[in-house]
Structure of Palmitoyltransferase:
Amino acid sequence: MAPYHVLRCCQRSLAWIPVIFINLVVGWSYYAYVVELCIFTIPNNAEKISYLLVFHLFFIMFIWSYWKTICSRPASPSKEFGLPKAEKEQYEKEERPDVQQEILKKVAIGLPVYTRTGTGAIRYCDHCQVIKPDRCHHCSTCEMCVLKMDHHCPWVNNCVGFSNYKFFVLFLAYSMLYCVFIAATVLQYFIKFWTNQLPDTHAKFHVLFLFFVAAMFFISILSLFSYHLWLVGKNRTTIEAFRAPVFRNGSDKNGFSLGFSRNVAEVFGDEKKYWLLPIYSSHGDGHSFVTRLVNLDPEQLAVGLQINGKSAVDGPTSPKHSLGNSIHHSEDHLDSILEQTGAETVTVTIESES
């Protein structure tokens, strides 16, 4: 076991190399722009001050969103999705897959779980020993199941998922703005240095190289940012874009799509004042999600149209609270969602026991 732990420790240390590289490039770009360009190269004070103000705005937002993406721990399934002790022992002793599935189905009753494996089985993680919530996947790098997992990003050394997807999109947006602003404002001095209109000083190398680096990063980030904007508009993760989620009635790539405006709100929240800030404002708790499907399962206690509870800005709610909201939701809000998604109206009567 000792060599394995040493190997894992080395892997975790090496995983920080891309993050260190990005921070070194950003640190150099800050020095090159502020000191070599603005202080030593630009003669006009008004131009110099205006450039510095806008530059620091983009720089602060870029660093803020970047480190929020890095430091936000991936959200994992709560204990409600784990097998009770008796069922867990029974599951581990049982060797027949069909009997194991019956055990999982029994435990899954009452949980907001509507997606299945490609063969229609309950999704279960043998490593984490939990029933996987919808849109949850196991990350072999993080060695944990991640709620609404999008992908594992080496540039942030973290899994991008429910807890930090908004921060990741903002990181792409502000890094792109940071690069395009640098490239646009450096261009005229790049041309002057290139055509020898300015004397050869120590600033020449920094200004020339700064333009090339900013333009190169802008082009590469633009394609990635455009792709994730498309994913947000479709309410899909990168995993779901490559492999459509499978529901009880079959696979459906648009199973979680609720229309463009509501799809955006799922990630950024309802209050637009928080959209551009790397502050948590996403909908739900990561365990259950609104779907446009209304097919009911007689073995399932929850309704087919899931409505996850809206959380406050300071964090998500618990899965039990979300499930309660999915059942006791106002008829007006249900009607509005059904109109937007084009789903058929289904009447569900829930009788309480006296």
Observations:
- The two ends are 56 Å apart (CA to CA).
- Residues 41 and 63 are 25 Å apart (CA to CA).
- The first helix runs from residue 2 to 14.
